[in-house]
Amino acid sequence: MSALLDKAFSPAKLNGLQLRNRIIKAGAFEGMTPKGVPNERLIKHHSELSEGGVGLTTVAYCAAEADGRVMEEMMYMHEGIRPQLEELAASVHKHGGALSGQLGHCGNFTQNKDFRGKRPLGPSRAFNLSGVPYGLPFAGAMGTEDMNRLVQTFHDAATFMKSVGFDAIEIHFAHGYGLSQFISPKTNKRKDEYGGSIENRMRLPLRVLEAVRKAVGDDFPILGKMGLTDGVKGGLEIDEALKVAALLDKGGIDCLIPSGGTSSMNPMLLFRGDNIWGPLLKAETNPLLWLGIFMMKPFMFFDYPYEEMYFLDGARRVRDTVKNAKVCYIGGVSTVESIEKAISEFDFIEMARALIADPALVKHASSNPQYRNPCTHCNKCAALIKSDTGVYCVELAQ
Question: Residue 294 above 90 pLDDT?
């Protein structure tokens, strides 16, 4: 095994957490929480990743509250799911891995059939296209009390997550979700102290980071998924993204994960490879949502051919900007060569599709220098988030 692979697969510390290696399973919604309740498939999914050798596996979309879910099938942090999450944590720990949870909020982007409030809220008033079939076409702008409550919600969710056995928390500042909506000039049109300059637009995300830190303590690892670009006109671009990184770094984030794209405006910038438009159409059962997806092909589902390490340039600029935070590379790592390249420049590596295709990637790559991951970047797995089966590698199952 090369010296770089040895580094990738050797122990490392993330704040006060000792990890057995530097490979992290990225948060990618598993579709294994029907009606918001984690099922046995979710436990098995992350247990297999831990058994396969990953250092830290991330449970995707742990909503801070019930109305923070994009879909009813996502879970939110509350006492009703404590037994399932404790079982999940225990199973991951049994196999020598550590467990992270991706803590976020949908903001004004929701199609939640179980929405309990009057309407979704974000930084500014907006039209919520995906919510039309569920009677949630309009989103309002948060007032001061709404923002104060949201900060407390993140605090309480983080407290709960630590108590059930999560070893780390990844706050979702990216991909068009709630905190990202405040950061992006495309969605934040406020005229008060929470809008305008990037420093103002970061005010609420930084308050959330501070609240989560207060909840979990100084030694508990907090990661942050951040955007390099929204990939849409008028959205976040790299120069402001570097200011986001600097502010999160100053705010005490332990590790930044520079990603890109938005689930609601340009998802293919994140995925790369085969377009998910067709598989999403095939999987969608709601006629109105099906029609919406069909009509949005030329405006939202752009083609980006897959290439290894497609966020490398932006991630390098983030690395060169921060002074204290570690940087975890994500975006097109599916070969031994890319693992070596990424770990030569960054502290950790996050992967999703490559680990869905082979949960034992770490064991296989560490024992076989000729290892080739079976992922073809078809992105069919991503369209299974509403399926009863949950996410799995479609190609290998055929």
Answer: no
Q: For the chain, first and last CA: distance in Å?
A: 32
Cα gap 290→275, rounded to integer Å: 16
**Rounded to 5 degrees, what are φ and ψ at 76?**
-125, 160
User: Do 387 and 31 contact (CB within 8 A), yes or no?
Assistant: yes
For residue 252, the model assigns a pLDDT of 98
Let me know if 177 is a catalytic residue: yes
Record: fold of 3-397: TIM Barrel (3.20.20)
Q: At residue 293, does pLDDT exceed 90?
A: no
Contact criterion met (CB below 8 Å) for 87 and 44: no
Q: Looking at per-residue confidence, does 368 or 240 come out higher?
A: 240
Degrees (nearest 5) of the Cα angle 343, 249, 5? 10
Which stretch of 179-183, 287-291, 319-323, 356-360 has the lowest confidence by average pLDDT?
A: 287-291
- Taking the alpha carbons of 352, 46, 158, 162 in that order, is the dihedral positive or negative? negative
- Which residue among 76, 177, 194, 310 is the active-site one? 177
What are phi and psi for residue 345, nearest 5 degrees? -120, -20
Helix (H) or strand (E) holding 362: helix 361-367
DSSP letter (8 states) at residue 81: G
Do residues 72 and 113 make contact, with C-beta atoms less than 8 angstroms apart? yes
C-alpha dihedral over 246, 312, 173, 238, to 10 degrees? 60
The pLDDT score that the predictor gives to residue 332 is: 96
d(CA 183, CA 237): 11
What integer is the mean pLDDT of 148-156?
98
Give 142's DSSP letter.
Answer: P
Measured distance CA(176)–CA(109) in Å, rounded: 8
pLDDT of res. 225: 98
Question: How is residue 140 written in tokens?
Answer: 């309002």
What DSSP designation does 328 have?
Answer: E
H or E element: which one contains 316?
Answer: helix 312-321
Q: Considering just the CA atoms, what is the radius of gyration of the chain in Å?
A: 19
* Predicted structure pTM score: 0.96
In the chain, domain spans: 3-397
Predicted local distance difference test score (pLDDT) of residue 138: 95
Average pLDDT over residues 254-270: 94
